[in-house]
Design a protein that fits this description.
Structural class: alpha/beta
Largest sheet: 8 strands, antiparallel
Oligomer: single chain
Helix content: 25-40%
Shape: globular
Radius of gyration: 25 Å
Strand content: 15-25%
Number of helices: 18
Bound molecules: fructose -6-phosphate
Distance between the termini: 11 Å
Length: 611
């Protein structure tokens, strides 16, 4: 998704801005641009394609990009096609330059109003209305800050925006509503970005802006006005994110690195929270155990991969802890009328903590009378964490690959801990508690063992590369894992993949089966195994070719219609986490053969901050 970097300094900031954009590349984008103020002149450079094209263009300039104040942007097109004229920054009156993440929903009426006032639009974007609105209101206000404070009253929708004025190079003004912004504090210089990752080479001290904040940033000062118009102080946070989190560490892709990090990050997620004796107190935040004691129903809300983690958790929460649970896609929940059951806890899951639909769903849930809210999240200080009463950090470390891997498995580990924490308050039978504790204890080692299947899966991937469609099957708590496997394959290899609960086969999808449609089956040795085997026979009888990831004791044998990969035996409750690994590896190796952009698949973005 779009990325923002800005700086006010004494030194030339162009390389800081470009490096910031490079560090945001993982979020997905299609064009980029930089605006610099130098000697009371504004210079704008924009390019379609990778940041490399932008930095090459800047290098070719006479002054190779000079300016101690500047803003930069990577754009992921929403309004207007992928063209240089639609790339940010957008400019008004050759004086004001603007970068923007989010969507100004009332841009059409603003465009009409501003056009009537004589402003000429040179792009199809909603963002250009910000530049002209600020320019218009600056005429009747004493400072840029005042002009922006007036302007935001006219904007509907979501924005994280930064505005500079060539007539006052000492200042940039930023505004946040629905799209994150973080101020980076330097010594005699200050910065802004949509993600702290962009600024880690220049500072570790951050102020996370809150909803409705507008801030004026100079080299030596930061002034923040909250949504009620009051000047406020916000906490300065020392970042714990590793500076080199953006390093591939010798792996060919971030995604592969992140797949291999899973044993370690799952171990980190468990550390100090759960031991073979039990789950700690208030692991999900201060007062969480008391809230869990009162909880009668859990509603889980998320998007994409995080939604699949929620779906898996529903099986666990109901089967192990005996607590009723339903799971919903955030973009659906936020636009429908729903009934809140008594003593309901809302649980949101998000790797980034900035997903627009999930944030909006949480806001709605809080207004609708949920007893309390819990965020399961990977980014400390993110909007979701700040806006929830309780939180649990997944400790996966920065996830750079657009396709989520380690965030998912740590979310699942977090959910098994949630089962333990809630179960403790609900008299969950001792044998179930002991089973989950033993399973979590063996989990990191089981993940390590499962990763040794990589070579076998790499060979198997060759059989997929010429296929256009595929079907993933699972039952029970493996059904969401089949869904996640299908999502991974489609997003990075562009092979159409669908997932079904295998009991549903005969209700429609069997019609699709032929030798050109590989069927991928996840088959741990559990009480549904015999049912699953019947479904496998249904596929075989129709000439389907299957790839079965199965427990050795499930007794599947490879033959001309079936390739079997034996997954290490594990305790039942962690099987969904263990079986995720071979599906991630399969997608990765298929994408590698197909030569797609594994870490930044086409059309996709990391952290979807627009609806
Ligand atoms: C898929 C993927 C997405 C995200 C989804 C939600 O690999 O990464 O489906 O899971 O966009 O993102 P978060 O978890 O940041 O809310």
């Amino acid at each position: 998704m779009c990325g923002i970097v800005g700086a006010v300094a004494e030194r030339n900031v162009v390389q800081i801005l470009l490096e910031g954009l490079r560090r945001l590349e993982y979020r997905g984008y299609d064009s980029s641009g930089v605006a610099l103020i130098h000697d009371n002149a504004l210079s704008i450079t924009r390019r379609v394609g990778k940041v490399k094209a932008l930095s090459d263009a800047i290098e070719a300039l006479d002054d190779q990009g000079t300016g101690a104040t500047g803003i930069a942007h990577t754009r992921w097109a929403t309004h207007g096609g992928v063209t240089e004229s639609n790339a940010h920054p957008h400019v008004s009156q050759s004086r004001f330059a603007v970068v923007h993440n989010g969507i100004i929903e009332n841009h059409k009426s603003l465009r009409d109003e501003l056009s009537a006032l004589g402003y000429r639009f040179t792009s199809d974007t909603d963002t250009e209305t910000i530049a002209h609105t600020v320019a218009e209101l600056r005429k009747s206000t004493p400072t840029l800050l005042d002009a922006v404070l007036e302007s935001v009253k006219r904007f509907e929708g979501a924005y994280g925006t930064v505005i500079i004025d060539k007539d006052d190079a000492s200042t940039m003004v930023v505004a946040r509503s629905g799209s994150p912004l973080v101020i980076g504090l330097g010594i005699g210089e200050n910065f802004i970005a949509s993600d702290q990752m962009a600024l880690l080479p220049v500072t570790r001290r951050f102020i996370f802006l809150e909803e409705g904040d507008v801030a004026e940033i100079t080299r030596t000062s930061v002034r923040i006005i909250d949504e009620s118009g009051n000047e406020v102080e916000r906490e300065i946070v020392e970042s714990t994110v590793e500076h080199d989190a953006g390093d591939k560490g010798g792996y060919r892709h971030y995604m592969l690195k992140e797949i291999y990090e899973q044993p370690a990050v799952v171990r980190n997620t468990l550390q100090g929270r759960v031991s073979p004796d039990g789950i700690g107190n208030d692991v999900f935040g201060e007062g969480s155990d008391a809230i869990f004691a009162k909880t009668e129903h859990i509603k889980i809300i998320a998007c994409g991969t995080s939604y699949h983690a929620g779906m898996t958790a529903k099986y666990w929460l109901e089967a192990y802890a005996g607590v009723s649970c339903d799971v919903e896609i955030a973009s659906e929940f936020r636009y429908r009328k729903s009934v809140v059951k008594p003593n309901s806890l809302i649980v949101t899951i998000s790797q980034s903590g900035e997903t627009a639909d999930t944030l909006a769903a949480l806001k709605l849930a809080k207004e609708s009378g949920y007893m309390s809210s819990l965020a399961i999240c990977n980014v400390d200080g993110s909007s979701l964490v700040r806006e929830s009463s309780l939180s649990f950090m997944t400790r996966a470390g920065a996830e750079i690959g657009v396709a989520s891997t380690k965030a998912f498995t740590t979310q699942l580990a977090g959910f098994l801990m949630l089962v333990l924490a809630i179960g403790k308050q609900k008299n969950m039978p001792k044998d179930i508690q002991q089973h989950i504790l033993s399973a979590l204890t063996e989990l990191p080692a089981k993940l390590e063992e499962t990763l040794t299947l990589a070579d076998e899966i790499d060979h198997l991937a060759e059989e997929f590369s010429d296929k256009h469609h595929s079907l993933f099957l699972g039952r029970g708590d493996q059904y969401p894992i089949a869904m996640e496997g299908a999502l991974k394959l489609k997003e990075i290899s562009y092979i159409h993949a669908e997932a079904y609960a295998s009991g549903e086969l005969k209700h429609g999808p069997l019609a699709l089966i032929d030798a050109e449609m590989p069927v991928i089956v996840v088959a741990p040795n559990n009480e549904l195994l015999e049912k699953l085997k019947s479904n496998v026979e249904e596929v075989r009888a129709r000439g389907g070719i299957m790839y079965v990831f199965a427990d050795k004791d499930a007794h599947f044998e490879s033959d001309e219609t079936m390739r079997v990969v034996n997954v290490p035996h594990c305790l039942e409750s962690i099987a969904p986490i263990v079986y995720t690994i071979p599906l991630q590896l399969l997608s990765y190796y298929v994408a590698l053969i197909k030569g797609t952009d594994v870490d930044q698949p086409r059309n996709l973005a990391k952290s979807v901050t627009v609806e």
